[in-house]
Amino acid sequence: MTTETITTDAGDARVTWHPAAKPRLVLAASHGAGGGIEARDLAALAAVLPAHGVTVALVEQPWRVAGKKVAPAPKTLDTGWRGVWPALTAPGLPVISGGRSAGARVACRTAKELGARAVLALSFPLHPPGRPEKSRARELLDAGVPTLVVQGGNDPFGRPAEFPEGGHELVEVAQADHGFAVPKRADLTQEEALRVVTDAVVRWTAALH
């Protein structure tokens, strides 16, 4: 594992690399507006994917690196992501643009422009909780590249059944919330819930070249 600081027009970002021994893809994934790269799904992917030929680059947006508590506007998040992209493509491999929550929105908005091979959207925030009329579906539908959405069955930002038809694939993590946490009374353990996430991404990335 190595860490790299990258200067962007939005400030300094940080990339933590989890390299595969024989990489064929890079998965670049950023955090949401309420947490960092220690999120359980990002950590699980960084632990699992390198054994399957996918180098994982976990990206901390400049606002997190600067120690700020509140995420900036989407435009600023996109600026930070664009600034990190040259470092992500430096290994010379196809890059999957990914993230959880707000990071998933950034990945969708910038995928075509940056030449991403695909998009991984973890806990895509389809709408603010309780506000389904404020849909962000267009960002997802306009990604323009192969897209995998992994969504908790009880995500208040958008349950799987609320998602529109489109070119994306959607995998549900039953009974999980926005952070893929499952209640103690759930039919699956927390470890099993995370395995649904990692198994889905391993299978999906195996079909990408």
Key phrases:
209 residues, alpha/beta, 8-stranded mixed β-sheet, globular, KANL3/Tex30_Abhydrolase, AB_hydrolase_fold, hydrolase, Hydrolase
Low-confidence stretches: none
Average pLDDT rating? 97
H-E order: EEEHEHHEHEHEEH
Helix content: 25-40%
**β content, as a range?**
15-25%
**Largest sheet data:** 8 strands, mixed
- Give the radius of gyration: 16 Å
- The main sheet orders its strands as 1-2-4-3-5-6-7-8
Backbone structural class:
alpha/beta
Question: In summary, what is this structure?
Answer:
The protein has 209 residues and is α/β, with parallel strands linked by helices. The protein has helices at 40-48, 62-65, 74-89, 102-114, 137-141, 190-206, and strands spanning 2-8, 11-18, 25-30, 54-60, 95-100, 118-122, 147-152, 169-173.
Care to describe what's here?
By secondary structure, the chain is of the alpha/beta class. It has six helices and eight strands. It has helices at residues 40-48, 62-65, 74-89, 102-114, 137-141, 190-206; strands spanning 2-8, 11-18, 25-30, 54-60, 95-100, 118-122, 147-152, 169-173. An eight-stranded mixed beta sheet has the order 1-2-4-3-5-6-7-8, sandwiched between helices. Strand 1 and strand 2 form a beta hairpin. The longest helix has 17 residues, at 190-206. The chain is globular, with a radius of gyration of 16 Å. The two termini are 24 Å apart.
